[in-house]
Amino acid sequence: MSEARGVKVVIINTQYVETDATSFKSVVQNLTGKDSKVAHEPSSSKQHGRRKQVAAGFGNGVSGTSDGRSVMSRGMSFKDLDRLLMDLPPFDELYRLFRD
């Protein structure tokens, strides 16, 4: 016959954390108690320049193309995205602008 087992109760402490893509792994490892050493991947000079730009605070996730169009780029944090969306004009105003 089987033995009756007790109920296992697990208490989970939730915590709100904001991070960017470059430090995500380190933050997760820090929260889980794992080794937080991050192996650096070999990067091209273009990627290295982008990392310097983001680290210096100049990267806002939006960049321009040679023909003047704005495009989204990788490495944009949720805080930057929220700021970008909050700076947009109301949708009815955008509709009126693009309708004509």
From TrEMBL:
Task: Give one Pfam hit by family name.
Answer: VQ
Annotated VQ domain ranges read 11-36
Q: Where is this region: Disordered?
A: 34-70
Xref: InterPro entries? VQ, VQ_1/10
Q: Which PANTHER family match?
A: VQ MOTIF-CONTAINING PROTEIN 10
Could you identify this protein by its name? VQ domain-containing protein
